[in-house]
Amino acid sequence: GLTKIYLQQKLSSEKDIEEKIATVNKKLHTLQQLTILLQSTFDFDRILDIITKAITSSLGFSVVLVSLYNEKDDSMERVAQNGLSEKVFEKLRKQKVPFSTIKNLMQERFRISKSFYINHKEMDLNNLDKTIDQIAYIIPEEKPEEYINWHPEDILIIPLYSKENKILGILTVDKPVNRYVNIIESIDILESFAQTAAISLENAKLFSKMEQLIKKLEKVSNISVLMNSHIQLENLLSHFVQATKENFPNYNTSIILYNQFNELEIKTYSGYTDKYIERINEMLKMGEGIVGWVAEHKTPVHVKDTRSDPRFVGRLDVSMSEIAIPLETSSGMIGILDIESEGVNSLDENDFRIVSILASHLSISIDNTFKYEETKRIANTDPLTDMYNYRFFIEKLKEELERSKKLSIPLSILMLDIDYFKEINDNYGHMIGDLVIRDLAQLLLNTVRKGDIVTRYGGDEFFIILPGTGKQFTHSIAEKINKLVKKTNFTNGIKITVSVGTVTYPDDGDSVETLLKWVDDALYDAKRKGRDRING
């Protein structure tokens, strides 16, 4: 009899062990299959779907809710579920739970392994009713089922941790499938699954960020191509901010450059009102504000929350993120590219990379416009007098004549040269002669009106374009120049006179060629008639 009882107990014990081994093997197999499934995709929504269905189909609970941490507003957002009605979940989705509420539940006394189990009986004792109201999903009209050892208001939180052990989110489960749950045994497999799920979610986020970065880099490339097509600074800047706004709608962009007084000035912008920019321009000073700090230290800045940065001098009624990058060319720092976006952490590390690349391309493009303008200036400038040369004169004459025809207004040209200039070179030398030409050039520049164009033709000859000026007033200007030259002491006290020829559109001709022929003839006649006179 005793032998029989002993054998029965032994068989029963062995059976229990076999059942436990089978259960463990089943759990391991389930985890293995779920891991393979999770690792098969980088699609974020697909991973969430796998997580929720796995828990309700294989891990012992009828209801699961996935909440992810939102760093921007320090809250938990419900993003996926299984076992709830769409109506209930839609209501939950709209409610963000402050992370402080979750932390209130993740106390050491509720810890089981890496998870947290809060029995409903603990609620009143620990004054957690308010916390429960904030995270519970059972709506009043839903009648909770009776469970052997699980109450509908019990809470089981399984945290989702990143590789750096930072909180990614939480899983909350309810309604055990067999109406009974062994918390200790359930935690084991749930946590193992949660760890794999967290890695998959983190990888999916990284993959998504990488995809977004690639798309942003493609947009940066498009903007760079656009910038290469502009060689004038004003056009370059306006097209840059326009293209940036089109490709990155959340970017409020401003380009700040040093003006002629070496002061910071916003040259162009998008996403702001003119009035706001006017106010900010008045506040821009070296060392003040985030932009001023960047200008002073020549160092990029990434501010995640402008309201918490004492350097910020803009709007304080809303939270902003800001990135400010120095613009540096071959001649040094010329300004700053500043990007703002509404919301805390609305500009992340990828945005910082993007803005840095944009700033680098913009700096190169601005430098190219400077070089182009300098090359153009040299090509259009007389090296002796530093005034425009004959090449520029012809270009401007064509433009002004076209404008005069369009507006039906007159246009006049003066052509003058120094009388007996050869004698100055013979008596004083060519170096003194050059100085006399430079003195005369400066006198002409100081005498004409704003908008008049003075150019050196070559040798001792000069052209002056007088837009919107008729014959009578042109003669008065010529007389003024003639008299002023006569009473001026030039280099070495040299006295000179000039002969002037004048011509006017439309009276004397309506083409560049005709006007130039007539003004040349007029000057020749003035010299033939005795010099030191005006003819036209």
Automatic annotation (TrEMBL):
CDD domains: GGDEF
Listed PROSITE patterns: GGDEF
One Pfam short name: GGDEF
GO MF annotation list: diguanylate cyclase activity
Residue runs in coiled coils: none
Start and end residues of each GGDEF domain: 409-536
InterPro entries, A to Z: Diguanylate_Cyclase (IPR050469), GAF (IPR003018), GAF-like_dom_sf (IPR029016), GGDEF_dom (IPR000160), Nucleotide_cyclase (IPR029787), Rev_trsase/Diguanyl_cyclase (IPR043128)
Matching NCBIfam families: GGDEF
Stated name of the protein: GGDEF domain-containing protein
